[in-house]
Design brief:
The complex is a heterodimer of chains A (about 650) and B (about 70).
Chain A (H helix, E strand, L loop, with lengths): L16 E7 L5 H9 L3 E5 L6 E8 L2 E5 L11 H11 L3 E7 L3 H13 L4 E6 L1 H6 L2 E3 L1 H8 L2 E4 L8 H7 L12 H8 L6 H8 L3 H6 L8 H19 E3 L5 H11 L1 H48 L8 H7 L7 H27 L1 H14 L8 H7 L3 H7 L6 H14 L3 H14 L1 H25 L8 E3 L8 H35 L2 H8 L1 H7 L6 H10 L1 H9 L5 H13 L4 H10 L2 H26 L9 H36 L1
Helix pairs in contact in A: 3-10, 5-10, 7-8, 11-12, 12-14, 13-21, 14-21, 16-17, 17-27, 18-20, 19-20, 19-25, 19-26, 20-26, 20-29, 21-27, 24-25, 25-26, 26-28, 27-28
Chain B lengths: L10 E6 L3 H10 L6 E7 L5 E5 L2 E5 L1 H5 L2 E4 L1
Antiparallel strand pairs in B: 1-2, 1-5, 2-3, 3-4
Classes of the chains: A alpha/beta (about 650), B alpha+beta (about 70).
Chain lengths: ~650, ~70
């Protein structure tokens, strides 16, 4: 902890000068950070949060610290709280401003200037602003703000030398009129000027740290600041060109459901062709079979056999079927990594082109039914790649309630890419009716469980409230950099969990625990699901690797109904062991356990219902009717419950209103 | 009227945003009370998109229901 009162807890020598990078989301901050720090970057988890902060050496006695992208500093969410603490602790702030969005971005600039810290502004994406017909008077902007403004194009490293030469010329700028007096009036001995400002703005945490009540001037100060920013923008920005008609047209086509849904389906189809066909088949064949199983596995088993007796217990744990040096390494690098890279690549393209926020707008309507908002499309799409990865990404959601719903639904209903391939193959063999039936069943569980959770959980989910940036062609270098950073991040975060998972499984196997469980659940598989007793093995294998589970079913002699029951059960059945570990890591142990047990119960319950419903079929009633009818009724039933719950809540609220 | 009743292309003046937190965030995006905005898109039963200059903001329908506007 640093000397003063902030909870900035990074491993930085206390005598170092701290240069802090601050800016709005998507302002090009991370590109600039990498350009300024070079290779020596540390990443650490910010205390008490799941957010990571990067920092690196700028010179011998100076560090550069990155902050999460925010629109302002306050206590609205984790990102803001962290950005606030790091900025308040800075010696110099480099504020990156997106030239395309001066009106929005300068609010943060002015807020940082109001804290009294020395600031230098990097006016980024100048090339794009010019292309869009925006003319910005940089000198006037600089004199109005009272700080240096350096035009940059971070991705092309343009303006970076000039920025570096001017970092130490950073000066405090001109504060919002009227604020100076308010800060002087407060006369707080303990708090810095920046802290005093935030206390005036009603920040409860900063106020508490200084043992004073939070101020009530947030709205007043914010409005004054907004007026000042608007006045600056009016003077310095000139539009020289009409906006692109084509982009606007395309944007509304993407958002309106009638055209937006087909465009979304097209995007998903491209995703399937790239990831599901090209990567999952062609690339993985090379990475998993040729490289990992062809070269790595013989190499590592050969190496280990020099010290360990083959087929001993230790051997099984280290180099056996689920051995620590075999299964997680081969699985993670050979199979999962190509898929994860593919997902992040396409997602970065969607993100940088501005398509993703439009999908969020399009999906908002549907997702509010299950207690989520449009932003949740991101983890849901990623879930089809890897549920472990998607679970990490739920951190972007606006409230803990939403994370709880999203994480549970991801583990329960979304089949990951590894499993999806095997499931699709087996379903295709059954015929189109069964494919439709499978989709109806899984969708019905997603919709009804989500709706019921939303009705049952206390509190309210946050509403969609997002910035919709203009559409643009993504830059290749940016997309590649993002993909690399995110994929690496996934690898670092997931690798220990996969290793631990493999360890648990192989120890259970060596000690005979695995066989014990398989015997224990046999009554369920045979009696309730109507499957052969060997299916228990496939289910247990599904915990190790979800595709193992599905693949294990292929070798069993199953009729069409049994195959459907088995595929439904294995989809809903608990996610792979790495996802389970991630679940426990992201949620509390108690909540993790509840979620885990619930998926088990729901999987067996639904599988059994499908099996029993199929018995209703006879020569006049084809099997799909009772099953489809039941699961569609389930959705309607959950909607009805949620509807009455809402009515009841409204009625209660009205009663209270009358009481007052 | 409330923002969820707005029609595409309507020019609106924001009159009241009741929730303090949402109000503060809206001011940061440049959409404060008294500001003129254009309703640029309405998704049936879904979000509403409003525009001010170059800036477009999407608001969920429930949020839009709480915001009072007047059409010009």
């Amino acid at each position: 902890m640093s000397k003063c009162c902030h909870s900035v807890d990074l491993d930085i020598p206390p005598e170092s000068k701290k240069i802090v990078l601050a800016g709005n989301p998507n302002s090009g901050k991370s590109v600039l950070f990498n350009a300024l720090t070079g290779m020596y970057v540390d990443v650490s988890n910010y205390p008490g949060t799941t957010l990571e902060i990067s920092y690196g050496k700028y010179s011998d006695d100076t560090v550069i610290i990155d902050t999460p992208g925010v629109y302002g500093i306050s206590s609205f969410n984790d990102e803001e709280r962290i950005a606030r603490d790091i900025i308040l602790d800075a010696d110099i702030v480099i504020n990156i401003v997106n030239a395309l969005h001066l009106e929005r971005d300068l609010f943060l600039t002015q807020q940082i200037i109001d804290t009294g810290l020395p600031v230098v502004v990097a006016l980024n994406m100048m090339d794009e602003a010019e292309r869009q017909g925006l003319k910005i008077d940089v000198e006037l902007l600089s004199s109005m703000l009272g700080v240096k403004v350096i035009p940059t194009v971070a991705v092309e490293k343009k303006g970076l030398e000039e920025l570096k030469n001017n970092i130490f010329n950073a000066t405090p700028g001109k504060p919002t009129p009227g604020i100076e007096e308010k800060i002087k009036e407060m006369e707080l001995q303990t708090a810095s000027r920046g802290e005093t400002l935030l206390i005036l703005e009603g920040d409860p945490i900063v106020a508490q740290r200084n043992q004073v009540p939070p101020g009530d001037m947030q709205e007043e100060i914010y409005l004054k600041r907004r007026q000042r920013v608007n006045a600056i923008v009016d003077k310095v920005v000139k539009f020289t060109k009409e906006k692109s008609d084509f982009k606007e047209r395309l944007s509304s086509l993407m958002i309106r459901p009638l055209t937006g849904i087909p465009i979304f389906l097209l995007a998903m189809w491209i995703m399937y062709e790239v990831i599901g066909v090209f990567i999952a088949q062609t690339v993985v064949e090379i990475t998993e079979e040729t490289i990992m199983q062809g070269y790595y596995e013989p190499f590592i088993t050969g190496l280990l056999s020099k010290w360990i007796t083959v087929d001993s217990a230790t051997w099984h744990i280290l180099a056996g079927e689920f051995g620590l040096f075999t299964m997680p390494v081969i699985y993670l690098l050979g199979l999962l990594m190509p898929l994860v890279v593919g997902f992040y690549l396409l997602l970065s393209i969607f993100e940088d082109s501005g398509y993703l926020p439009r999908v969020a707008v399009l999906a908002d309507r549907v997702l509010t039914n299950i207690g989520l908002n449009g932003r949740a499309v991101i983890p849901i799409i990623l879930g089809f790649g890897c549920v472990t990865m998607a679970t990490i990404v739920t951190r972007i959601l606006g409230s803990d309630r939403e994370r709880r719903i999203a994480i549970f639904l991801l583990g329960l209903t979304i089949p990951c890419s590894a499993q999806l391939g095997v499931i699709a193959g087996m379903l295709a063999g059954l015929g189109p009716q069964y494919v439709i039936l499978y989709v109806i069943i899984i969708f019905s569980i997603l919709a009804s469980v989500g709706t019921l959770l939303n009705a049952a959980l206390p509190g309210k989910s946050t509403d969609l409230f997002i910035d919709v940036p203009p559409l643009r062609l993504p830059r290749v270098d940016n997309v590649l950099k993002k993909t690399a950073t995110k994929s690496l991040h996934f690898l670092v975060e997931a690798a220990p969990l996969f290793a631990l998972g493999a360890l648990i499984i192989s120890v259970s196997q060596v000690t005979g625990f695995l066989v014990l469980i398989q015997d224990l659940i046999k009554p369920i598989t045979v009696g309730w699901l109507g499957l052969p007793k060997e299916a228990a093995t496939a289910l247990i294998m599904g915990i190790v690797r979800r595709d193992f589970g599905a693949a294990g079913l292929m070798s069993l002699p199953l009729n069409k109904i049994q195959t459907l029951v088995a595929l439904v059960t294995i989809t809903l059945f608990v996610p792979c062991i790495a996802s389970i570990m991630m679940l426990f890591k992201e949620r509390s142990n108690k909540e993790g356990l509840i979620m885990w047990l619930s998926s088990l119960v729901i999987a067996f319950l639904v599988g059994g219902i499908v099996s029993k419903l199929s018995k209703l079929a006879n020569e006049y009633l084809p099997i799909y009717y009772p099953i489809a009818a039941f699961f569609i009724a389930l959705i309607l039933f959950s909607w009805a419950i949620s509807y009455f719950k809402n009515k009841l809540d409204q009625y209660k609220e009205n009663l209270e209103g009358v009481g007052k | 009227m409330t923002l969820d009743k707005a029609k595409r292309g309507q020019i609106l003046k924001i009159l009241n945003i009741p929730d303090a937190k949402i109000k503060a965030q809206a001011i940061r995006f440049g959409i404060s009370e008294g500001e003129m905005v254009v309703c640029s898109e309405v998704i049936p039963l879904g979000p509403i998109i409003i525009r001010k200059n170059n800036q477009e903001i999407a608001l969920g329908r429930n949020l839009a229901k709480q915001i009072t506007v007047i059409s010009n």
